[in-house]
DNA sequence: TGTACATCAGTGAACGCGCGTTCACTGATGTAC
DNA sequence: TGTACATCAGTGAACGCGCGTTCACTGATGTAC
């Protein structure tokens, strides 16, 4: 019995189960696992199937082709990141200015934190397999979380009126850029805190921009 | 005679030349061309060689393996971007505050402009083939250009002392993030100008950040 | 409750393919005398 | 200037490989009567 075969084949643990039970999900999970380990360009449908304990052709009953599987994985990875950020905010309740600012920082830190912890998943979530079509910024959870925290930040007077309009986009770009540059080895991890602090500073008080 | 064979084989145009003349460079150029057309994960050493009019094995006299060729291409793509930015600054001389600010904007715009124009090359330049080892931020031309312009911006009083320390990193992160999000289809191209303007605003005047 | 049968979700062999790389080779070039 | 020869930079056939996908199949499941 091969190692791969020894993996559980279904939810109920029925050893002789011919049908997997939740193959669709199992393939997705294993695909993400392999992507995170080797990078999206280094994984094969066959490997995913074999690791799940199923023949490669079985996957075609659940996904029309490899690309579909990877797209599903990308979408799921994006949600994983949103979960990760949500967990980071979980214990930071409170309505004090201090609490609000802590939430703002946690949002940025968790964004970069997820990328650092799961670089290949992070790349998958944003790369060509997710971008476009059904991926909508406005409706994504990370975006919504950012909107909410900025709203709070605004309410405690931490956002200068002149900075309000493009605050979301400025912040998202900055944090996303920081995450990417860190993954590329072009910025050290330590830069994330100063960057976030600079953003706070920038939001709080801004003069008029010259022509 | 195949189409590929019809390509010029050397610099002097000698039709019957057995030796190419500058195969190393030709491979590099063609590799970049193909990457830019199909993305780095979709090109093969063989295709590069054939397009240049040479047998696949010939490449091994110039690069130990495919990875080396791609690394060289990545490095070259990065320099292409620097060239692109330099050209953008070329006609923006002058020492007036207005001229300085124009240069600052041009730097950001050309960064995103290059990415937009050559998305796959941009990704190659930053992806896993360039990151790390001999890629040094401090010494890279884009970084040096940014340093210079920020210095100028500082001299005309457009940078609040509190923002000076991390200005470079903040700006690079932001512009890099904007470029990436645009390529991913998560931000429209039009956001680049507001983002740059927000940055200017942010730099110019910043209060103290609360604890 | 038992049986017939349609449907679902697997198997496993096979396909053709293009890939990176190796190897023995050979034509062209440049240098020493 | 001519010749011998080492070196350089190509060729092309071959290697083994793993890939995505297809196909005819079959075991398991669920439903109608």
Give structural notes.
Chain A is elongated, with a radius of gyration of 21 Å. Chain A starts with a helix and ends in a 7-residue tail after the last helix. The first copy, chain A, has 2 domains: 15-64, Homeodomain-like (Arc Repressor Mutant, subunit A, Orthogonal Bundle), CATH 1.10.10; 74-203, Tetracycline Repressor, domain 2 (Orthogonal Bundle). Chain A is mainly α and 211 residues long. The longest helix of chain A is centred in the middle third of the chain and has 25 residues, at 66-90. The first copy, chain A, is 62% helix and 0% strand. Chain A has 10 helices and no strands. Chains A and B meet through helix 5, helix 9 and helix 10 of A and helix 4, helix 8 and helix 9 of B. The structure holds a DNA duplex (33 and 33 nucleotides).
- The CATH superfamily label of the largest domain in chain A reads Tetracycline Repressor, domain 2
Assembly classification: homodimer
- Overall number of structural domains of chain A: 2
- Name the chain pair with the biggest interface and residue counts per chain: A-B, 54 and 54 residues
What count of helical segments of chain A does DSSP give? 10
Q: Please outline the major beta sheet of chain A.
A: none
- Which band does the percent of strand residues of chain A land in? under 5%
**CATH-scheme architecture of the largest domain in chain A:** Orthogonal Bundle
CATH class of the largest domain in chain A, anyone? Mainly Alpha
Order of helix and strand elements from N to C terminus of chain A: HHHHHHHHHH
Low-confidence spans of chain A:
1-16, 207-211
Cα-atom radius of gyration of chain A: 21 Å
Number of DSSP strands of chain A? 0
Mean pLDDT of chain A: 89
- Could you say which structural class the secondary elements and strand pairing of chain A correspond to? mainly alpha
The helical percent of chain A reads 55-70%
